[in-house]
Each structure stands twice: as C-alpha cells, then as structure tokens.
Amino acid sequence: MNKIYILLPIFISLFSNLSFASSPKSSLISDYKYSNGINNTASLQRGAKYFVNYCMGCHSLKYMRFSALAKDIEVEEELFFKNLVFTNKKIGETMAISMKPSDAELWFGAVPPDLSLIARSKGGDWVYSYLNTFYEDDDRPTGFNNLVYPNTAMPHILVSLQGSRKLVLDSYNNPVSFEKVSDGIYSEIKYQKMTNDITNFLTYVSEPAKLKRHSIGFWVLIFIFIFTIIAYYTKKEFWKDIK
Ligand code: HEC
C-alpha cells in the first residue's frame, strides 16, 4: 500500500485539532491557564483558606482529613484550628459538610458535588477557567452562566471579588471576550491569583501523596545513582582475576 494512505489519518486528525483550537469559544477559554505549583506551600495555605471561607459552605472534601492537611501545608494544629475550622470538628475528621443533599437540590437545583477529585477528573485548567468564566445571563436563575460549564447551577459566589462581566459575542454568536459591567473588590490580576491558589489547593487535594512522592522520588534517584557506581566497582573487583 502506498505510504501516503497510512499517513492520511494522521493528517486528518492534525487538521481537525487545528480547527477545534481556533474556534473562538475554546480560544477564549484557553486564555485561562492555571499555573501549577503544588510545591508552593504559601499558595496551598491561601488556597485552603479561600476554600474554607468561600466553598466549604456547599462543597465537601470527604477524602481529606484536617490533620493531614495541616501537616502538608505546614500549619501548626492550634493555628490551623483557630483559622480554618469553624465547626465543632476534631482534627482527625474529614472535611465533610453538613448540608443535606435534599436541601441543596431544593435550593440550587443540583447537589454541589464533593470536590476531592475534581482536579484529577477535569484537570486544573478546567477548574481554573470555570472560576474565571462566569458571566451575566438573565435567563439563568442565579443571574449568571458559565463558559466552560454552560447552565451551571452554581451561583457566581465570587462575584463581589471579581466584579460582574458580560459575554461579548460576534455576529455568529461565538463568544469573543468579556466586558466589565461592575468592578469587584479585587483587581483582575488579584482575582486570577486567588483562583489559581484555589485550583492549586484542589490539585493538591486530589492527590496529596504527590507532594511526598516528589520528595521521595528525588532521594530514590540519588540512591540508584550511587548504587550503580558501587555495583560497577564491585563487579570490576569480582571479575578482575577471572579474565
Ligand atoms: C452556594 C453553594 C456553592 C458554593 C458556595 C460554591 N459552589 Fe461550586 N457548585 C455548587 C453547585 C450547586 C454545583 C453543581 C453545578 C451543576 O452541576 O450544575 C457546583 C459545582 C462546582 C464545580 C463543578 C463540579 C463538577 O463536577 O463539574 C466546581 C469545580 C465548583 N463548584 C467549585 C467551587 C469552588 C472552588 C467554590 C469556592 C470558590 C465553590 N464551588 C463554591 C454550589 C456552590
């Protein structure tokens, strides 16, 4: 068979990707890229604080224990309790919440999902752009819609910080940009930094062992390196009389 036929599917997939990447909707979303920094403890501390203050009213992290979190983000338990635990929970408990799913369904029309694994299932960029692409929409019960999660039931709970924005469409009804309607308490840069911290925190939560794995991995590689040298010279020593 002619080689060109084998290459054809590859060419087609190349171009289909291109056309997807250049669609205005995805290009507006792809303006929002999360910068990963799970080794940045200060960012994780801020992210945890924001999460507890702004998200935990509705979302649980049922696989995360307060004690493990306090240790990983290097906050002493006493300080941690004073600043991050508002209920009568104990340090060994998980970050569950007391909102009943049936109440949530009634209030929001959807149950706020547990976010323990969200950054792993949808990716950091998705979470980050979700928090950054709320826009005014009078047809929605909350008054806001979202570009990455159309018709989301979640209210734009950070609107007082970000300010309100409208979506600007081109003549084909494709989203091209956001237009500010009212200022928030935060500047755009500060809001992006905050949402990046939250995303960073959720990325850490979705795989807490990653922090340890990175530091253990480093020492394992050093060990293998040193051991290789030792093994090499041992082999040389053993075989030197046999030749
Ligand atoms: C007032 C309650 C409420 C608060 C506070 C809230 N959310 Fe939500 N959130 C919801 C609801 C309800 C949904 C489900 C939306 C749907 O499925 O349509 C949701 C969905 C989400 C999703 C998508 C989950 C998925 O499986 O697709 C993410 C991510 C999210 N919220 C993050 C956050 C973050 C981060 C915060 C804090 C900054 C926050 N939420 C605060 C109610 C809330």
Q: Could you give the order of the helices and strands? A: HHHEHHEHHHEEHEEHH
Termini Cα gap: 53 Å
Can you name the CATH architecture of the largest domain? Orthogonal Bundle
* Biggest sheet layout: 2 strands, antiparallel
User: Structural class, from helix and strand content?
Assistant: mainly alpha
Describe what is shown at a glance.
This protein is mainly alpha-helical.
Task: Please explain how this structure is put together.
There is one protein chain. The protein is mainly α. It folds into 2 domains: about 25-205, Cytochrome c-like domain (Cytochrome Bc1 Complex, Chain D, domain 2), CATH 1.10.760.10; about 210-235. Helices cover about 55% and strands about 10% of the residues. It has 11 helices and 6 strands. It has helices spanning about 5-20, 25-30, 40-55, 65-70, 75-85, 100-110, 120, 125-130, 160, 190-205, 210-240, and strands spanning about 60-65, 95, 135, 145, 165-170, 175-185. The model is unreliable at about 20-25 (pLDDT under 50). Bound molecules: heme C. Heme C binds next to helix 3 and helix 8.
SSE layout and pairing:
Layout: H1 3-21, H2 24-29, H3 41-55, E1 61-65, H4 66-72, H5 77-84, E2 94-95, H6 101-108, H7 118-121, H8 124-132, E3 134-136, E4 144-146, H9 159-162, E5 163-169, E6 175-183, H10 188-206, H11 209-239
Antiparallel strand pairs: 1-2, 3-4, 5-6
Helix pairs in contact: 3-10, 8-10
The structure holds heme C (HEC).
Heme C (HEC) binds at residues 54-55, 57-59, 108, 110, 112-113, 115, 118, 127, 130-131, 152-155, 157-158, 198.
